[in-house]
Amino acid sequence: MTVELLTKPSRVPQWLRILWANKKSRVGVVLLSVFVLTAVFAPVLAPYDPESTDFAAALPASGDHWLGTTQQGQDVFSQLIHGARTSLLVGLVAGVFSTIIALLIGMTAGYLRGWVDEFLSGLTNLALVIPVLPLMITLAAYAPVRGVWLIIFVISVTGWAYGAKIKRAQIITLRTRDYVTAAKLAGDGPMRIVFREIMPNMTSLVVVGFMGAATAAIGAEAGLEFLGLGDPTTISWGTMLYWADNGGALLTGQWPWLIAPGLALTMLVTAMTLINFGVDALSNPALREE
Amino acid sequence: MRNRLRLLAMLAAAGLFAAACTGVDGGDSGDAPGSYPRNQTLFTSGTQWGPPANWNPVMNWAYATGTVGYVYETLFLYDPLTDEFEPWLAEQGDWTSDTTYEVTLRDGLTWTDGKPITSDDVVFTIELGKMETVPYHSMYEFISSVEAVDKRTTRITFSEPRYQQWANWVYFNPIVPKHLWSNKSEEDVTSGANEQPVGSGPYLYETHDQDRMVWKKNDKWWGRDKLDLDVKPTYVVDIVNTSNEAALGQLLQGDIDLSNNFLPGIASLVKGGYQLQTYYQDAPYMLPANTTWMVPNSTKAPLNDAAFRRALANAVDTDKIVNSVYGQIVEKASPTGLLPIWDKYIDKAVVAEVGPAFDTSGAAEILSQAGYRDTNGDGLVENKDGSPIDLKLATPSGWTDWNEAARVIVDSAKAAGIKITSETPADTVVQDMRESGEFDLILDNQRQMDNTPFRYYEYVFGLPILESQTTVNYGRYENQQAWDLTQQLDKTKVDDLAGMQSVASQLQRIQLTEMPMIPLWYNGLWSQYSNSVWTNWPSAEGDGPRYLPTTWRGYMQRGAIKMLAELKPAPQDK
Amino acid sequence: MGRYFGRKLAIYALTFVVAVTINWLIPRFMPGDPVRAMVARAGLQDPAGVAAMREYYTSLFGFDLPWWQQYLNFWGELLRGNFGVSLWAYPKSVGSIILAAVPYTLGLLLPAILLSWWAGNKFGAYAARKKVLDNAVLPIWYVLTATPYMWLAILLAWAFGKVAGLFPVGRSFSASLEPSFSWLFISDLISHWFLPFLSLFLVAFGGWAIGMRNLIIYELEADYAHYLGALGAPQRLVRRYAFRNAVLPQVTGLALQLGVIIGGAVVTEIVFDYRGLGYLVLEAIKTSDLFLLQGIFLFIVIGVLVANFIIDVVYVLVDPRTRVGMGSGS
Q1: What are the chain B neighbours of C44 within 8 Å (beta carbons)?
Q2: B76-191: which CATH architecture?
Q3: Residue A197 has what pLDDT?
Q4: Which residues cross the membrane (chain C) (predicted)?
Q5: CA dist C104 to A59, B245, B418, C98, Å?
Q6: Which residue out of A51, A53, A241 would a mutagenesis test of the B interface target, given it has the greatest number of B Cβ atoms within 10 Å?
Q7: Partner-chain contact A226 C150, CB within 8 Å
């Protein structure tokens, strides 16, 4: 998929416009904004302190507690709102880190070629084949202190391979373009060429890569926390599911507690997938919808 | 496209059909071949957390549920509820002098392979203690000789009589058949799987799978005529636990009869008409099984200061833990940490005089008197040298009730001016910290209800301190006087109540002023049972059977085995 | 042809070596002493006993050797199929525990992967050319594929297990049954299998359907499709070509998705208390049975490598270009 549309950085407004014009990504952008706003204003929006255990345990949904309370007497709705912070934080940070790793490895391999490429591509292929979740579980299980940052670290070091492969492929097609050759002849160094000439043409790819990595990170974080490999005292959707499942919410019929965090996760991931398809549509006009 | 739908429909239909055929709980399948008849089978859970993998009674922390109790039996039973020993394999056992003990087996006992049980087996079992890796090796150090006097009588001569420990030995450790065990290597004795166990008890090994252990009734069990006891279930199926919640689900569906899982929500379910029952009808619902202690590391400042430990003991709001974390299924512990069954050993005068009680301002008062001041005005006291205090309280991650309790402790200590931070490392890490002494504060509850408070004082004061503390005195508290008293208690005869009380009172004074460990609450003997298939479960109400309702390891010989003889089939309502 | 597979096999072999090495490295760089954990559980009080037991377990697990020898021994044991001894089910071997659980996981994964792939592709391709249908089902697919595996599992367990009471939730077969070749047992097995299967199937299905739909639209816009159309080829033929081309990336996608679906199976099994590898993973985490955890990790790596190789072979079979290319290459 080439990116002829975006040969110059000055076209970024159009980038946004297309994203907005696409029905799907528009829905995604709106949804994501809601989540971001929720996360930012969580302390204002949440009716109670999410960690406070002052309420009666296992209350059903009511006017005071929209989604009831947990087995420990915490307000589920407040936890849900604060949980958005953790998910977005993990998505953002782990997404950025794994995108950076993917960019560095993919671009170095693709631009330098030769034995460096052989080595890095080999590494990428290797990392692609090793099943990530079991590796994550093993790493997290051995770690002495568990928490969000450990999960971010684990996700970052295990989740870059796919992005690196795609970026390498892209740079290989770009590096033979005329303007790159021209820059080379003008005596520009490889760093300058990669960052000034080639990078701008990969914006959509990087955005897609970032969104994909962030989405995967959010899912992985929830999964690891559900397994009890996070810090169960942090407030996040993953730990909420962990506690709900462990607190027997299914049996005691506290379905709002069980359903809310998973629904929030699903909506967030859906939002990001929708945006991703919108970005994809930028480079593939056939996918655009009017 | 159409194929796809058809296939999906077929799959769904197959699933539904299968579900319809078996019935959701699978329990309706009755007496069909290949299934255990529901009304003759007892389903239990709550003991086995991994697949049954060994039937070795020596590995008393890991054997398949029931190995001791159903198959291997002890000389005596000890019932903590009545504080009485009951002869089991033994007919009687007495101290014939200050240093010799003689035990006589019942007449005509046989192993389930038909060989007679003789005093040779008893001698052999005690002498296994010569092996360093057998758990009761330390007991053997006080024994000078063991001899078979005749076919049924064994005489044990002590170099130094440890009456309390020995009383513990005779009911806790099962006798193993010499003719099958004598050629085992030490490795085999202490960590062999011992498949196809041969013992003497009321059940025989039937089969096992990754997720269950099945025992079948031994129709020739000696107890039927010698004790006039008959265990009622023909089969006992012990289910391997995955989680407490899964056990709760199966209990509610009537797929499990007895669950010894920790189910925090049980209080509301017992009253909810699910045919569930617990030992007590109301709070605390459960019998207390052991004490949960907060262990301060006495080698680190400021926890090496008894005044600071006392302040901490006064600062913890245990009632809040009992009410909000446990929903009242546990009870607050006595300041001495002794279980209610040991009430007669508690010197109430001493407790009233020096015992701690939850009192935030009192705790702050003790701190300031001892010289701990808030020098930087953050509301939290600093060390005497002005450096900030930040104690780490470690509870294993996933131990959710303890994690929550830690949170309450952190909050209430903060109110008194002590900064504690809760940490939840993996449980192996906590174990490491506990043994190596690299911690500030941990929780622990390993000592169970027992025949003697010596077991608790040994746990609190045990010396010497080793590089690695594996079972006692994790806080590394050194007090020779207290340890001497503890050993004196061990050497007190079990029928000398006044002697025991006097030593215990001295120990309590030291304990309550020094606070080497801080008792918090009594952990329950988690147990809930369904009346849908079996009834007449242990109960404190009316004339219900007063036995410990559990299959936990080490509890069969505490009388729990007799629960199986009391069960009655539930009236058929169909 | 030989060179192509040779190269692939070399990559897989290298991956395996790296995975084994990582596996060997992790526990040696992390705190927590499994031997100490073992000894602690024995509850020995006597110092001599503790020392003796520690020595015994240390030599049993080989921690007392120089590191290179530990590494070589690790390989030696591995090649003999010995994954070590489980702490969770001591003294059982990790290999025997895993082998007993594998049929359950494969029984879930294979049908879920194959059926969801096949049905997702068919349905996605079908929807791509029916505008109305496409608009109706597309949102459902998006949501399905975004659903966390464990959450869908919880929902299904709640709706079909608890509320409707149609299916049992928990374990692989009823505790009151002995495994046998009877209708009773097999139907019981299927009814326990269905919900975990369904939840894996549904999530994966959404992903394949979206992928296929987009690929088909892309292919139909490609030059050859327009060209064929201009030549007057029937729509059906054009679509068939488009489908054939679009299937190829989906085959590659299958290889990439394997890890994700296995991860999904792990959490799904946990929700349903289904006694496969996922259940073992959880138990190993809970009891810190690191040998078991590592054994499972290696086992999954081997499984994924084998599956990747099979997919490579399939790819060659369905893609005429690689066939021709390799023919001339060798």
Answers
A1: 133, 135, 137, 470-471
A2: Alpha-Beta Complex (3.90)
A3: 77
A4: 9-26, 97-119, 140-161, 181-210, 246-272, 292-318
A5: 38, 22, 52, 10
A6: A53
A7: yes
* A16 in any annotated domain: no
Report, as ranges of residue numbers, the positions in chain A whose pLDDT lies below 50: 1-11, 289-290
CATH number for the domain spanning A209: value is: 1.10.3720.10
Give percent helix, percent strand, percent coil of chain A, each to the nearest 5: 75, 0, 25
| pLDDT at residue B88 tops 90 | yes
Chain B environment of A252 (Cβ under 8 Å)? 265, 268
pLDDT at position B22, please? 45
* Chains touching chain C, criterion 3+ CB pairs below 8 Å: A, B
Domain with CATH 3.10.105.10 in chain B: 288-524
DSSP per position, C145-196: HHS-HHHHHHHHIIIIIIIS--S--SSSS-TTB---SSHHHHHHHHHHHHHH
The model carries a pTM of: 0.80
Alpha-carbon distance C120 to nearest alpha carbon in chain B (angstroms):
9
The pLDDT, as a whole number, for residue B393 is 95
Provide the CB-side half-sphere exposure for B356 (13 A, CA): 37
CB contact under 8 A, A129 and C15: yes
Chain B, 3 to 22: residues with Cβ < 8 Å from chain C are 3-4, 7-8, 11-12, 14-19, 21-22
CA distance B426 to chain A (A): 6
Q: Which two tokens stand for residue B506?
A: 């001295």
Nearest to B27 among C46, C47, C176 (CB): C176
Length of chain B: 574
Query: How many percent of chain B have pLDDT more than 70?
Result: 94
Q: With beta carbons less than 8 A apart as the criterion, state whether B338 and B447 touch.
A: no
CA distance B58 to B252: 35
Q: What pLDDT sits at residue B459? A: 93
Per residue in B160-211, pLDDT (tens digit) is 999 999 999 999 999 999 999 999 998 889 888 898 899 999 999 999 988 8
**Structure token digits, residue B118:** 């003789």
Is residue C99 a part of any domain in this protein? yes
Using one digit for the tens of pLDDT, what is the confidence trace for B540-560?
A: 988 889 999 999 999 999 999
Tokens 């084949």 found at? A129
**Across the interface, do A251 and B245 touch by the CB < 8 Å criterion?**
yes
Please tell me which of the candidates B18, B141, B192 has its beta carbon nearest to residue C191.
Answer: B18
Summarize pLDDT for C65-78 with one digit per residue, the tens: 788 888 888 888 88
**What's the CATH fold of domain B288-524?**
Dipeptide-binding Protein; domain 3 (3.10.105)
- DSSP track, B201-238: SSEEEEEEETTEEEEEE-TT-THHHHT------SEEEE
Closest chain A CA to residue C309: A129
In chain A, the number of structural domains is: 1
Give me the CATH number covering residue C291. 1.10.3720.10
Partners of C97 on chain B (C-beta within 8 Å) are 51, 210
Which pLDDT belongs to residue C329? 37
Model confidence at B444, pLDDT cuts 50, 70, 90, reads very high
CA distance B110 to B223: 11
CATH classification of B2-54+201-282+529-569, choosing from 3.30.70.100, 3.30.420.40, 3.30.420.10, 3.40.190.10?
3.40.190.10
Closest approach of chain C CAs to the CA of B98, in angstroms? Answer: 25
| Least CB–CB distance from C56: residue in B18, B21, B133 | B133
Q: Do C148 and A142 touch (CB under 8 A)?
A: no
- pLDDT over 90, % of chain C: 15
Average pLDDT score, chain B? 88
Which chain A residues are within 8 Å of C305, Cβ to Cβ?
Answer: 129
Helix, strand or coil for residue C16?
A: helix
Please report residues of C whose CB lies closer than 8 A to that of A273.
142, 145-146
